Amino acid sequence: MEKNITVTLSEEAISRIGQFVTRGIDSTEEQIAESSEQDGYTQEDIQSSVNEIREAQGIMSRLLQAISDADLVEPAGQKASGHEGTDRSDKINLASIQDGWALYSPNEASTMDGRGFWNIESLWSDEEDVTTFPAESVGNYALPQSLGQDRHWINLALVKVTTEAGLCDALAVFCDSYGLPHLSADEVLFAGEFQPFQGVWLRQFINQWDRAMEA
After folding, report:
1. CA atoms of 80 and 99, how far apart (whole Å)
2. Which of 37, 43, 99, 212 has its CA 20 to 30 A from that of 127?
3. Which domain holds residue 47?
4. Judgement on whether residues 99 and 53 belong to the same structural domain of the protein
5. Which residues sit opposite 153 in a β-bridge?
6. 139, 52, 58: which is closest to 103 by C-alpha?
7. Do residues 136 and 196 share a domain?
8. Do both 197 and 136 map to the same domain?
């Protein structure tokens, strides 16, 4: 028996559901592989578990298709403007990966009381005045001059993630967003070819992970 229900979900909630189901499927597949090598498990037991996996994948596929087909409208006042000063969440989601990019210079920040964030109108500024860019600008935007030419792209949402647990969640969101395997960041980075912003995001993640592990 099927019932139609209406549920309002945030983008973050949808991402979390996807991660949960993906991890559950991965875990179940590992258990099946282990069970097939042990005594006491029949082919019927294994096939039953396989059927459960296929059912879960089917449900997620239909859910994602329904979301894709829906006319999603952001609440008034919540849509990102793309201009400097846009409110930024500390949470990692697809929107923060796609639109939350900025240019930063450590040298400028150290010599100008923290004003190391690029603003297209007032040049090197405080973070609250930073100009944010879409992912397409990474690798294509003409870089400004900085002391020692050390300016580089950063993902603003990722910068704020400093704990091991938070970084693990961030990498999971990144991999799920682009259909990548759940491996360590360096393995993902060297396993394939990426758009410029994706490679920059992964390298930033690796640097932050190393600092978190040293803390």
Report:
1. 9
2. 212
3. 11-69
4. no
5. 103
6. 139
7. yes
8. yes
